[in-house]
Write a structure and sequence with these properties.
By secondary structure, the protein is an alpha+beta fold. The protein folds into two domains: about 1-155, no CATH class; about 165-340, Heat Shock Protein 90, CATH 3.30.565.10. Helix content is about 65%, strand content about 15%. The chain has eleven helices and seven strands. The longest helix is centred in the middle third of the chain and has 45 residues, at about 120-165. The two termini are about 60 Å apart.
Length: about 350
């Protein structure tokens, strides 16, 4: 019997570690204090004196104990799969009504006030009113919290999906390069294959990560460019300038690769491809600018009408899911991509 009681007591202590109990304690305490201030505003000395005397009693019996006892029961019900708003509300109504009656009894016997609060059926109405207000407020906050969590989960899932759609794009050209050199220059094909393996390994390693650093992204881009240089040779020139302060800034993984890939995708007929990349900080934002000397974007891409592909369209979606994320496309002596995100 003692062992069962001890086990039950320990389970209660474990439940009391739930964040609700600490938060609810503060809320009902502030509510009780607010009620006292209402009496202060009345200016009646007797009302103020009664409020100061009764505030601790109301707090313990009407606010604190009914709220916590209801929460303990609700936690156990939900743990067993029972989640009914009506039942939970009724439990709180009963507990607050009992709490109101306890306040009346306490005043009657502790202060020798005949009849206590003399509320009669008003005790039930008072418990019903306060329980409804408190439970509706809690239900609304809980709903908003769950909605926020679901929205965040959906955003994470969407980001994961968009990233996995991006991954295969840079593989095709690399595999074609390996295929073209596998007989004529096996060593070069092997070197390209190892670089491709490094890129794929990076993609897998960051698969569950929400962020990586700009420094790591630049390292990936350098490996990607080494593969492309095998195809373009001396006809490819790349300049990458990174503000030292921006090196450790966090950005979504595989963000830069599709931007650079776009330079090659739309500049196939250019004899000499020149790519410039600048990454810097400005007004608490990280700015990424990539430009080339190609033919620029088509009008449908500039207006984001072309949404069938998984390149620029997905890139825009990923960036806009970030705080103050913005993607700007323009044609300035070639294609120009500008990414802005809050640091």
């Amino acid at each position: 019997m003692i062992a069962i009681a001890h086990q039950y007591f320990m389970s209660i202590l474990k439940d009391l570690k739930h964040p609700f109990f600490a938060k609810s304690f503060v809320v009902v305490l502030l509510l009780d204090i607010a009620c006292v201030f209402v009496f202060f505003e009345s200016g009646d000395i007797s009302s103020v004196s009664s409020a100061l005397t009764g505030a601790p009693i109301w707090f313990v019996f009407f606010y604190w104990l009914p709220t916590w006892s209801t929460a303990l029961i609700v936690l156990r019900l939900r743990r067993r799969g029972y989640h009914s708003l009506l039942i939970e509300w009724m439990i709180l109504v009963v507990h607050m009504t009992i709490g109101n009656q306890c306040v009346s009894w306490f005043i009657e016997y502790a202060f020798n006030v005949e009849g206590g609060l003399n509320m009669g059926l008003g005790i039930i109405f008072n418990g019903l009113m306060w329980a409804t207000c408190l439970y509706c407020s809690y239900a609304m906050l809980e709903y908003r919290h769950k909605a926020s969590e679901q929205k965040l989960a959906m955003q994470k899932a969407k980001l994961q999906t968009l990233r996995y759609q991006l991954n295969p794009h840079f593989m095709f050209n690399s595999l074609n390069t390996i295929s073209s050199y596998i007989h004529s220059d096996p060593n070069l094909a092997d070197e390209v294959l190892h670089k491709l393996a490094d890129i794929l390994r990076y993609s897998l390693d960051t698969g569950e990560l929400e962020e990586t650093t700009i420094k790591e992204e630049i390292e990936l881009i350098n490996k990607y460019l080494e593969i492309e240089k095998v195809r373009f040779g001396d006809n490819l020139k790349v300049e990458i300038t990174v503000d030292p302060r921006a090196s450790d800034i966090s950005i979504p993984p595989l963000l830069l690769q599709p931007i650079f890939e776009n330079c090659f995708k739309h500049c196939r007929t250019i004899e000499s491809l020149h790519i410039q990349c600048r990454i810097y900080l400005k007004n608490d934002k990280v700015i990424i600018e990539v430009s080339d000397n190609g033919y620029g974007f088509q009008e449908s891409v500039l207006s984001f009408i072309h949404s069938q592909g998984t390149g620029i369209h997905n890139l825009r979606q990923r960036i806009e899911l970030r705080p103050n994320g913005k993607l700007t496309l323009s044609n300035k002596s070639g294609a120009h991509v500008k990414v802005e995100m809050s640091v």
